[in-house]
Amino acid sequence: MSSKVKAVVSRAKGAPVEVTDIMVPDPGPGEALVAVQACGVCHTDLHYRQGAINDDFPFLLGHEAAGVVEAIGEGVEDVAPGDFVVLAWRAPCGTCRSCRRGRPWYCFASLNAEQKMTLADGTPLSPALGIGAFAEKTLVAAGQAVKVNRDCAAEPAGLIGCGIMAGFGAALNTGGVGRGDTVAVFGCGGVGNAAIAGSSLSGARKVIGVDIDARKLEWARDFGATDVVDSTKEDPVEAIKGLTDGLGVDVAIEAVGNPKVFEQAFYARDLAGVLVQVGVPDPTMKIELPMIEFYGRGGALKPAWYGDCLPTRDFPILIDLHLSGRLDLNRFVSENISLSDVEEAFAKMERGEVLRSVVVL
Length: 361
Known about the structure:
It is a single chain. Helices cover about 25% and strands about 25% of the residues. The protein is of the alpha/beta class. The chain folds into two domains: about 1-160 and about 330-360, Alpha-Beta Complex (Quinone Oxidoreductase, Chain A, domain 1), CATH 3.90.180; about 165-305, Rossmann fold (3-Layer(aba) Sandwich), CATH 3.40.50. The strands form three sheets. Strands 3, 5, 6, 9, 10, 17 and 18 form a seven-stranded mixed β-sheet that branches. Strands 13-12-11-14-15-16 form a six-stranded parallel β-sheet, sandwiched between helices. Strand 15 (about 270-275), helix 9 (about 290-295) and strand 16 (about 300-305) form a beta-alpha-beta unit.
C-alpha cells in the first residue's frame, strides 16, 4: 500500500516549486514512515531547485524536519510508532571504512530509504538529502529518524536536523572551540548564528560576527556575539585583528560558501589558528592562496560535513540544551508557513529577511 499526500516538488531547474500529490510507500525492511509536523526552509533546498546540486529532477524538497513515526518496517528496533523524531541526512551504515575505524560522523555510505517516493503518475522523486520532508509524510531509512524529547515543539526541533547542527557542530566538533578561545563567524544567517551560539556556550571569550547585513549582525548579538563587524564599512580582517590585540582569532568559521569570504577568514586567523568552512559553495567556485601563507601560518583548514555530527548523540543534546533554557532554538524560527508558501519563503531567504521559515503541517 501507499499513502497519497501533498508535497512540494521541484520539476525543473529554476522553475517555481509546486504543491502536488505524491505517493509514499509503506515502510519496507529498515525503513520508517514519518508524519511530518514541521520542516525548515533551508538554502540547500533552494540549491536543489536551482540545479546547483545535481540534475536529478523532479526533486521532493525539504530536509530540516521533525515529526512522529507512523509505521516501521521489518528489523527496525531503535524507533517505534508514536516516537517523536528529528530527521537526519546522515545515518551511519556501521560497515563502511570510516564507520569501522570508529569515525561514524564521516560515514561514506549513509543510509537512505530503499523504496522510491513518486509522483501520482509513478515518476520517481529524488528526495532532498535523502529526506524529502516538504510533505505530509515521508519515507526514510530508520537510522535517519532520531528519537528526541517530545517536550520540544516541532518547529524548532526540526531545525537541528540541518542548519543548527551544521553551525553548532562546525564550532564545537570541527573547530574545537573551547574555554578562552577567540572566534570569528563569517555569515550570520541560520548556520552562522548556530556557530555563534555554540561558541558562546563552549566558553569562548570573544565571538565576532561578520556580515554585510545590519539586521543579521543584530541577530548575531542576540545569539551571543560579543562584537560584530559590518564588512561593507570596514575591512573585516583588520577589524578582527583590532579586536584581538592584533593577533587574529583562534577559530574562523566561514558560513557563506564564497571564495572571497574564505580568503578573509583565512587571513583573520592567529598563527596556528583553525579555519572551518561550513558554508556550501557553488560547484564552480575556486580558491587561490599563496602556498607560503598556507605553510607559514600553520594551523588547519577544515571543511565541516554536517558539523561532523553524530545525530544519535548530538540531536538529543541540543534538544536538552533548549529545554533547559541554555540554547533558545525558538530564536531561529522567523515565521510559520504552509506548503504553498515555500516559493515565497525562498525569496525572503534570498533577501535576508528571515533566519528560517518553517513549514508547519
